[in-house]
């Protein structure tokens, strides 16, 4: 961590937020890797019903941050909101560890509510660390995003091993342990964070802007800031609608249509949910360094163009799945390299959009509404997650499964082309904001 601070000059509080998010994401992605498989293989839900539950759950997980962000801005402050969310999520994972259907639904409810308090506020804190270092913000969010994906790497491996090989509820219980560790890390981390992070809550409640640069922004530019966030948030729907197939239809593809044998040992399907975070950890430092160097040379693509590139690479990933599905249609198990190929392009796409979007919201939103607008970002993420879950259950309704994956190629490239055309009309807003 000291080397990181010396070489990249990032704030000293970043590692603590990194570790808090890592443990929380370990619990989330560990549970997510098991969810659809548990519903289909243990509770014997149909693919359609499992997809509906997955879609409702993952969308509500990203919808409640709108409320959680507002309550943090107006009443609770970041610290209380994060603690509230953490405890609720811990209760949720512990409920899932109880082998009764009513506790299963209760656990999902706790996780949905808890994430609403936790997610927008921990993300906003990262942005506040960079008030005096705006040039490092994208790089900082990319590093923070690596913490998310370190948890995403470990969660499916730990929870998936226990869930698929021992007992489903042991896997859910392991996710709860991860959440408990995250709470402890945040407690000690709050002692290391600068006091200005907490002071700004009071200032914003009185209607004063925390960032001195934002206090001078006129109302017209403030409106353009909000519109830019709304536009990019809307196009993120197309990304999440396709990207979140990893936890649903691609998870089932790994279970049913992929050769998972390795030296006569069958790899659990949930393990493949770790490919994406593993690639994030590999490529994340490269992207963090790339954004930093491009920023120093004033060659960094603006956020709109990064979103366009993201949607293009996303389409490439699903072209790989079209090929894999055609092989599966012939009755042959597809090689694992198809999933690796699809997840590689999906990961590149993710690095062009998700951490960039978080960074853009935090530095562009008027300071009084930063958490609420962060919630709007997660609201559009929620819509994309709902469509992802809803559509995943109907993969078998297509004449050929390959047509199902081609649908996401078309939507990704179509949305990217539309956003690129729009870029010519709104790119000046970026300079004004």
Task: Describe this protein's structure.
The protein has 433 residues and is an all-alpha fold. It has one domain (2-432): Growth Hormone, Chain: A (Up-down Bundle). It has 17 helices and two strands. A two-stranded antiparallel ribbon has the order 1-2. It is globular.
By secondary-structure content and strand pairing, the structural class works out as mainly alpha
Q: How many structural domains can be distinguished in the coordinates? A: 1
Helical residues, percent: over 70%
What fraction of the residues are assigned to beta strands by DSSP?
under 5%
CATH topology: Growth Hormone, Chain: A
Features:
single chain; 433 residues; mainly alpha; Growth Hormone, Chain: A; two-stranded antiparallel ribbon; 17 helices; disordered N terminus
Topology, element by element:
Elements: H1 2-8, H2 14-42, H3 47-63, H4 65-76, H5 78-96, H6 101-129, H7 137-165, H8 168-189, H9 196-205, H10 212-215, H11 219-243, H12 249-257, E1 261-262, E2 265-266, H13 275-296, H14 303-329, H15 336-364, H16 370-392, H17 401-432
Antiparallel strand pairs: 1-2
Helix pairs in contact: 2-3, 2-7, 2-8, 3-6, 3-16, 4-5, 4-6, 4-16, 5-6, 5-8, 6-15, 6-16, 7-8, 7-13, 7-15, 11-14, 11-15, 11-16, 11-17, 13-15, 14-15, 14-17, 15-16
């Amino acid at each position: 961590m000291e080397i990181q601070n010396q070489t990249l000059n990032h704030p000293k509080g970043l590692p603590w937020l990194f570790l808090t998010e890592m443990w929380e994401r370990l619990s989330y992605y560990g549970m997510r890797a098991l969810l659809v498989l548990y519903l289909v293989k243990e509770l014997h839900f149909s693919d359609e019903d499992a997809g509906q539950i997955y879609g409702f759950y993952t969308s509500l997980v990203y919808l409640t941050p709108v409320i959680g962000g507002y309550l943090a801005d107006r009443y609770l402050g970041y610290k209380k909101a994060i603690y509230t969310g953490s405890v609720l999520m811990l209760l949720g994972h512990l409920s899932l560890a109880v082998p009764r259907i009513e506790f299963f639904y209760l656990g999902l409810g706790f996780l949905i509510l808890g994430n609403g308090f936790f997610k927008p506020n921990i993300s906003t804190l990262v942005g506040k660390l960079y008030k005096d270092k705006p040039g490092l913000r994208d790089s900082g969010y990319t590093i923070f995003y690596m913490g998310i994906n370190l948890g995403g790497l470990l969660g499916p491996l730990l929870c998936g091993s226990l869930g698929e090989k021992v007992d489903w509820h042991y896997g859910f219980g392991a996710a709860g342990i991860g959440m408990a560790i995250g709470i402890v890390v945040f407690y000690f981390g709050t002692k290391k964070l600068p006091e200005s992070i907490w002071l700004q809550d009071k200032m914003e409640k009185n209607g004063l802007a925390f960032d001195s640069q934002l206090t001078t922004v006129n109302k017209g530019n403030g409106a353009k800031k909000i519109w830019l966030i709304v536009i990019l948030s809307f196009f993120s729907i197309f990304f999440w609608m396709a990207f979140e197939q990893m936890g649903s239809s691609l998870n089932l593809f790994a279970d049913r249509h992929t050769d998972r044998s390795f030296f006569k040992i069958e790899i659990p399907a949930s393990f493949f949910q770790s490919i994406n975070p593993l690639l994030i950890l590999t490529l994340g430092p490269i992207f963090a360094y790339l954004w930093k160097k491009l920023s120093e040379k004033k060659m960094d693509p603006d956020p709109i163009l990064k979103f366009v590139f993201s949607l293009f690479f996303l389409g490439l990933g699903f072209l790989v799945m079209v090929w894999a599905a055609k092989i599966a249609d012939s009755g042959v198990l597809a090689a694992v390299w198809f999933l690796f190929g699809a997840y590689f392009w999906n990961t590149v796409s993710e690095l062009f959009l998700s951490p960039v979007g978080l960074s853009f919201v935090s530095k562009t939103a008027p300071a009084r509404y930063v958490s609420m607008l962060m919630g709007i970002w997660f609201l559009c993420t929620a819509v994309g997650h709902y469509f992802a879950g809803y559509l995943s259950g109907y993969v078998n309704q297509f004449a050929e499964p390959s047509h199902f994956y081609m649908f996401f190629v078309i939507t990704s490239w179509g949305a990217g082309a539309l956003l690129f055309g729009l870029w010519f009309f709104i790119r000046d807003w970026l300079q004004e904001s």
